[in-house]
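Hi Y.,

Following your request, here is the sequence exactly as I used it, all 196 residues.
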Amino acid sequence: TRRPLTSCPTVDYPPVALVYGRREDFTRLEHPTFWYYLPYRSEDIGTIEIVLRDESRQTIERYEVRSIDNSGLIKITLPYSLEVNKNYQLLFKIYCGNRQPGESNADIVLSTWVQRKPESAIDLPANLDPLQQYQLYRDERLWYDAIDTLADLHFSNPKNIEIRQAWKELLESLAMGETLPNLDWLDGEPLVDSEL
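Below is the corresponding structure, written out as tokens. Let me know if you'd prefer a different format.
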């Protein structure tokens, strides 16, 4: 969701949460990792805030994201322990310029939902390589785990043709409707350091 009046600079591509988004965004991890594309430099942003809410939309935790120097893909591992079979909403709030949480509304809010499945929901053989793990997670609709596994592989093996092809196919499958029919333009974006 983008607010009509924003102090964020104009960019070619908007901020994006890397999610499958078809009510199939599950994880098997207690502390899952979430990936975002951020098109802004640190001097453009006042604050980035992550808000975790329960299914009744009550705030559980708030975190400030720090150390983002350039635009690119960032990964956030949630410190909060997700309970099994519960739904959670994650809000990624961007405050541009000098805006701060509590003083004003966020300029941009990306909203996603996640549910943690029990470890027993998937049989993960010990001998799978990471690309096979990605494929198993994808097939089991554990999209947060699939995206994190493949993104880590992509950034640690940028010249591997098989991984690059899987990454491109993943980005094409993460369509955002008519606004962003696919995310293949993210293929060349760097991984940017960030922390909570």
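DSSP finds three helices and eight strands in the chain.

Thanks again,
Q.
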